[in-house]
Amino acid sequence: MGKLLRFILAAVFMLSLSVTSFAFELSKPLCLAPAKPGGGFDLTCRLVSNSLLASKLIDKPMMVNFMPGGVGAVAYNHVIGQRPDDAEMIVAVSTGSALNISQGKFGKFTEDDVRWLAALGADYGAIIVRADAKWNTLGELIEDLKKNPKGYVLGSGGSIGSQDWFKAALIAKEAGVNPKDMRYVAFEGGGEALAALLGGHIQIYPGDIAEFSGQYDSGKYKVLAVLSEERLPGKFSNIPTAKEQGYDVVWTTWRGYYMGPKVTDEQYNYWVDLLNRLVKTDEFKKEREARGLYPFTKIGKEFDDFVKKDVKRFKELAKEAGLIK
Amino acid sequence: MEVLSLLYNGFTVALTAMNLGLALLGALLGTLFGALPGLGPINGVALLLPIAYTIGLPPESSLILLAGIYYGAEYGGRISSILLNVPGDAGAVFTTLEGFPLSQKGLGGPALALSGLSSFIGSTLAVVGLTFFGPLMSKFAISFGPPEYFVLMVFAFSTITVLMGKRPVKSLISVVIGLILAVVGVDSTTGVLRYTFNEPELYDGFEFLTVVVGFFAVSEVLLMLEHYNSDTFHLPKIERVYISLKEFLMCKWAILRSAVIGFVIGVLPGTGASIASAVSYTLEKKLSDKEGTFGNGDYRGLAAPESANNASAGGALVPMLTLGIPGSGTTAVLLGALMLYNINPGPMLFTEQPKLVWGLIASMYIGNIMLLVINLPLVKVFTKILQIPYWILVPSVVVLAFVGVYSVNLSTYSLMIAIILGVLGYILRKLNYSMAPIILGFVLGEIMEDNLRRALSMSGGEFGIFFEGRINIVLWILVAAMLFMPIIIKIIKKKYFKS
Question: Is residue A240 domain-shared with residue A307, that is, in the same domain?
Answer without folding.
Answer: no
